[in-house]
Design goal:
Oligomer: single chain
Strand content: under 5%
Number of strands: 0
Mean pLDDT: 95
Distance between the termini: 26 Å
Shape: elongated
Number of domains: 1
Order of helices and strands: HHHH
Length: about 120
Amino acid sequence: METLRLVLLFVHILGYAALLGGLLVQVRDDTKKVNSLMRDGAGTAFVAGLLLVGVLENLGSPDHAKIGVKFAIGLVILVLVMVNMRKPSIPQGLYYGLLALTLANIAVAVFWSPAHA
């Protein structure tokens, strides 16, 4: 089970790396759009995260508050990406919102750690 947890965590991280890469590759472009890296990264990260929660539930008691926050942010990212996938461009505000949400979800994962005894 621990090996499965690590594989899912790795895939989850790769998903967020793809999403972030898809966003950052456009940072200097005047016209922003949802690209396939963003779509695939958001989908991969979300699905791998859901599967990871299932494994974590089986291994012990995960931090449900942290999972809830990450789920909510991830779902918003996924919906915004999928709704805007076929549009030729997206507003600058949406682009920077997606970037901020992506960075916020990564920050939650890194900085929201269990309390140390």
